[in-house]
Amino acid sequence: MAATTIPSVNLKGCEKAMPVLSMGTASYPPAGLEATKAAVLEAIKVGYRHFDTAFAYGSEKPVGEAIAEALRLGLIQSRDELFITTKLWNLQLDYVDLYLIHWPIRLTEMVSKTPVAREIVRPLDVKGAWAAMEECKKLGLTKAIGVSNFATKTIQEILSSATIPPAVNQVELNPLWRQEKLKEFCKEKGIHITAYSPLGANNTKWGDNRIVDNEVLADIAKSRGKTTAQVST
Ligand SMILES: NC(=O)c1ccc[n+]([C@@H]2O[C@H](COP(=O)([O-])OP(=O)(O)OC[C@H]3O[C@@H](n4cnc5c(N)ncnc54)[C@H](OP(=O)(O)O)[C@@H]3O)[C@@H](O)[C@H]2O)c1
To answer: Residues 160, 165, 168, 171: what is their CA dihedral angle, to the nearest 10 degrees?
Structure first.
């Protein structure tokens, strides 16, 4: 398949543009290291340049290995050609492009998988956590910092003391979960919204098929000569 060029967007305070279409690397049940590595490598071949990973997905290692392999194969000339979003350090890269606070919560013990037990969830020290994120950017460990699954109130709390505002808020967003107020708020503050589970996380434990089976979306897709998945993302 011929490689495709994906448009990019500029993030506030980030010198590197972010490709708007990212390949997610969470899978339920986990796809396994080799399958994830092969999928990422294949995605680089067809033109993906942005990958979304996280410690909790167990996909940081295969993403890192796929990048090393892509460099070896000459699919990319430099790691700089890729935009890597993650939600905790473990990638064996010199830097990541976008580092997010995965959830606005604190856990009383270390767990590496979701879902987590309710009993170990506590409120996050939002300002303290954000100060540490700012330090990561100042140290050059990431080109941009942001949040994920944050509501307007918690973002306001960050903005009240931040010296570097969040560049991105990655949230669940799709045609049936439109988050209009949050989108308006983030737009006003110059925070880019990234959608996750754009297809309603069909085939997963918590998602359903209401988007992929939606008749209105199917009609819109048909009238444009696209698939439902294409008009939903
Ligand atoms: N920040 C966060 O808290 C957070 C939370 C969840 C997800 N994410 C990120 O967002 C990414 C995507 O989210 P997601 O996987 O939850 O949900 P999603 O993209 O809404 O749905 C993924 C499902 O869509 C199916 N699919 C793929 N292409 C399709 C097509 N053309 N037509 C119909 N179905 C199609 C896949 O099926 P198959 O399984 O058959 O391939 C997969 O099961 C994740 O990989 C992760 O990187 C972030």
So the answer is: -10
Test site for ligand 1: of 197, 208, 213, most ligand atoms within 8 A of the Cβ: 197
Choice among 28, 57, 95, 196 that is catalytic: 57
The length of the chain, given as a count of residues: 233
Residue 57 annotated among the catalytic residues of the structure: yes
**Domains of the chain, with CATH numbers?**
8-108+121-198 (3.20.20.100), 200-233 (no CATH)
Q: What is the pLDDT along the chain (233 residues), one digit of tens a residue?
A: 667 789 999 999 999 999 999 999 998 888 999 999 999 999 999 999 999 999 889 999 999 999 999 999 999 999 999 999 998 655 767 899 999 999 999 989 888 777 889 999 999 999 999 999 999 999 999 999 999 999 999 999 999 999 999 999 999 999 999 999 999 999 999 999 999 999 999 988 789 999 999 999 999 999 999 999 999 98
Contact criterion met (CB below 8 Å) for 69 and 37: yes
DSSP letter for 159, please: H
